[in-house]
Specification:
heterodimer; A: 128 residues; Rossmann fold; 5 helices; 5 strands; B: 626 residues; alpha+beta; Heat Shock Protein 90; five-stranded antiparallel sheet; 20% strand
């Protein structure tokens, strides 16, 4: 049931199991997934592959997710930026994230079906 | 306290001083005057007595001398010179008729024989006597006259014999005879009694040196046989050298007299005048008694006066004393009437009244201050107690908050850390499920276990959500809604199991409220979930809205479960308290926290065996809905 949509997706998370499982699950939906464990490698990878979608954890060992979000948004206005978090975010944090260019938030653990649907919807709208 | 005496010591002091001041000078002056008057009286009486004695001595002498002269003149008459007996007799009779005092007349011849004898009570031809041996005969012959031979005529009446020689003695011839006469001396007594009546205090007497009482102012004393002058008086009188004199005399029987005496010129007789001391000093005694009476009157007057004065002084003083005692006991009313006289006592009373007035004021102030202090103390104590309670509550609250904050912190970290593996598991199971879709459809057991894993992930996530919801420091985001509408929506999407009967009673006014929808929804879900849990087989779940009190609306969730015992009821809102086999014990803690954050109040009532009722009171919105 592998679908090909050729959308490039980058997952940045310090938890290897999480980023791999998420990548592999999304690959089932036809996404081309790249992985990064730190902000530094994430940004390098993004510069190289120019992803359509970036899913990143808010807390990374070498940086904050918000900073990567800001950097990535500088580089591209069209890239879909999704923030992941294991905790509740305050309204101020959410506002800050949106102001820095985030498109959506995910709270762990997330429903894969729902996530997949959201991404598709966003991609469709951008293309449209 | 001893009862105050009627008058008080002051009265007696005043009385004593009054008496001393008035009586001593008066007594001294009076007695001095009495002494003076007594002395002058003494002098005066003695002088009078002396002059009386002297003058009477002269009278006595004249009395005697008169009869002597008569006899001498008669003896010198020719009838006697001639010796004519009948003529002599005639003349003698004539003499006796002229002078009643002459009791008897005799003519003696030179040999002493009685020649003629004439007497008033002798009768005719009396017996003639030989008088030669009589004492007076020789004396009269030798000296020409004789006065003496005192006798009592008829044994009672004093008489004296006067004899003169017949034939002039001057001629140098030998007298031819003697003319003798017995003279009654009653006349002297009569004169004395006229001068000093027996009723008067003064008496007088004439006596011979041998005590023969010649005359006395009291006839009873002289007209008796053997009447004599008192021997003691006589002894004193006969030892006097001077012709006359006087002084105070006290007899052995205690009688005192003021007496004077005078010798009768030419005779050895003594005139004696006496006045009893009592009588003499009668005036002085009267003065003394009058002074004494006066003193008594003065004493009475002084007693009355001093009592009046002391009463006048002590009455207001005693009233003041009573008032002072009252003031001492703290009574400032009903003072005894204090005289406001225009003097020092009045001033004292005024001073006292103003003092007690000031005392009363000060005492009142003190009492007020004391009461105020007590009141303040009580208030302070209450405030301290209240503040202590508040502080304690605040402290407890703080501890609780700190504890909750710590729990929240920990929960947040734990939750976050668990969510990551949960996310990985979730992703992995999704991967497996997707990859092995054909296997799962063939093997129901594998499919079941995948479902179990998914369910447990859900459950673990639910627990983490619950903990994070309770502990997170989220700002309230109230939104205005209509209570009934909001509830209706919530209930409509809630998955009630079929054995639960839902019973809704909504208040018609549909009150507007401002609530954080997420939190309030969580609270309601918790309560409904609990209610469903305690009614596993069948039951009625009541949802009711009503207006509980002023500006408050209430949501009531009731069940018909087994109820909660009283001791458990007190703890159910505490975090992590649970009676369930599984569960965080945060469900009701979240409810309470949410309602508290909305400024409301949670109530619970339960009857074991009947069910439990939760009431959430929340404020009605004052904003008018657009």
């Amino acid at each position: 049931m592998t679908k090909q949509n050729h959308s490039k997706l980058l997952v940045i998370d310090d938890d290897a199991h999480l980023r791999e499982s998420l990548a592999e699950v999304l690959e089932l939906d036809g996404f081309e997934c790249s992985l990064a464990g730190t902000a530094k490698t994430g940004l390098e990878c993004a510069a190289k592959i120019n992803p359509d979608i970036v899913i990143m954890d808010i807390q990374l060992p070498d940086s904050s997710g918000f900073q990567i979000c800001q950097e990535l948004r500088k580089r591209s206005k069209t890239t879909i930026l999704i923030m992941m978090t294991g905790r509740f975010l305050s309204l101020d944090e959410k506002k800050q994230g949106f102001a820095l260019g985030a498109d959506d938030y995910l709270t762990k653990p997330f429903d894969i079906v729902e996530l997949s649907a959201r991404i598709r919807q966003m991609l469709t709208r951008r293309k449209g | 306290m001893p009862l105050p005496s009627q008058r008080g010591r002051l009265a007696y002091k005043i009385l004593l001083w009054f008496l001393i001041i008035s009586l001593i000078p008066m007594g001294v002056a009076g007695l001095y005057l009495i002494d003076i008057s007594q002395a002058s009286l003494h002098q005066q009486i003695l002088g009078t007595e002396k002059s009386l004695a002297q003058s009477f001595a002269e009278t006595v002498y004249k009395y005697i001398a008169t009869y002597r002269d008569i006899l001498e003149e008669s003896a010198a008459l020719p009838q006697f010179a001639s010796g004519n007996k009948s003529e002599e007799q005639f003349y003698l009779k004539h003499l006796m008729s002229l002078h009643v005092a002459i009791l008897e007349l005799s003519v003696l011849d030179s040999s002493g024989h009685e020649v003629i004898r004439e007497g008033r009570f002798l009768g005719p031809n009396p017996q003639l006597r030989n008088m030669e041996s009589e004492g007076f005969f020789d004396t009269a012959l030798a000296r020409g006259e004789f006065i003496g031979a005192l006798k009592r005529f008829q044994g009672i009446y004093p008489t004296v014999t006067i004899a003169v020689s017949i034939g002039s003695a001057k001629s140098g011839k030998i007298p031819s005879g003697i003319l003798a006469a017995k003279i009654s001396l009653n006349g002297l007594s009569s004169m004395l009694s006229m001068e000093f009546p027996p009723s008067s205090a003064t008496s007088a007497a004439v006596a011979a040196p041998d005590g023969f009482l010649i005359a006395h102012s009291d006839p009873e004393k002289v007209y008796k046989p053997d009447a004599r002058l008192n021997s003691e008086i006589l002894k004193i009188l006969t030892t006097q050298v001077a012709d006359s004199g006087g002084g105070e005399m006290t007899l052995s029987n205690g009688q005192s007299f003021l007496s004077a005496y005078a010798d009768v010129n030419g005779l050895d007789w003594i005139v004696y005048v006496q006045e009893s001391i009592q009588a003499a000093y009668h005036t002085a005694a009267r003065m003394r008694s009058q002074i004494l009476r006066l003193l008594i009157w003065v004493i009475i007057a002084i007693i009355v006066l001093s009592l009046a004065v002391s009463r006048h002084i002590t009455q207001p003083l005693r009233a003041l004393k009573d008032a002072a005692r009252k003031v001492g006991m703290g009574q400032f009313e009903d003072f005894p009437e204090v005289l406001t006289t225009n003097d020092e006592i009045g001033d004292l009373a005024q001073a006292f009244l103003s003092m007690s007035e000031s005392l009363k004021e000060k005492t009142g102030e003190l009492v007020d201050t004391k009461q105020e202090l007590e009141r303040l103390n009580r208030t302070l104590e209450k405030r301290v107690e209240a503040r202590t309670r508040e502080l304690k509550a605040a402290q407890e609250e703080l501890i609780k908050k700190e504890r909750l904050a710590a729990i929240g912190q920990m929960a947040s970290v734990v939750g976050h850390e668990i969510r990551n593996p949960l996310a990985v598991i979730n992703n992995s199971i999704y991967f497996i499920k997707t990859k092995l879709a054909s296997v799962l459809s063939q093997d129901p057991k594998v499919s079941k276990h995948v479902k179990i894993i998914e369910s447990e992930i859900q459950q673990a996530n639910g627990i983490i959500n619950e903990i994070l919801t309770y502990s997170r420091q989220r700002e309230l985001q109230p939104e205005p809604v209509r209570l009934n509408d909001w509830l209706e929506e919530l209930l409509s999407v809630y998955p009630f199991p079929p054995h639960i009967t839902l019973q809704k009673i909504f208040v018609p006014s549909n009150p507007p409220v401002e609530i954080d929808l997420t939190e309030m929804q969580q609270a309601l879900r918790n309560l409904i979930g609990n209610a469903i849990e305690v009614m596993p087989e069948k039951g009625i779940l009541g949802v009711k809205t009503f207006l509980s009190q002023a500006n408050m609306a209430a949501i009531e969730i009731s069940d018909t479960g087994p109820g909660i015992p009283q001791e458990t009821l007190e703890k159910i809102f505490a975090p992590f308290f649970t009676t369930k086999a599984r569960g965080t014990g945060l469900g009701l803690a979240v409810v309470k926290k949410v309602i508290d954050r909305h400024g409301g109040k949670v109530e619970v009532a339960s009857i074991v065996g009947r069910g439990t009722v939760f009431r959430l009171h929340i404020p009605i919105s004052q904003k008018v809905e657009a």
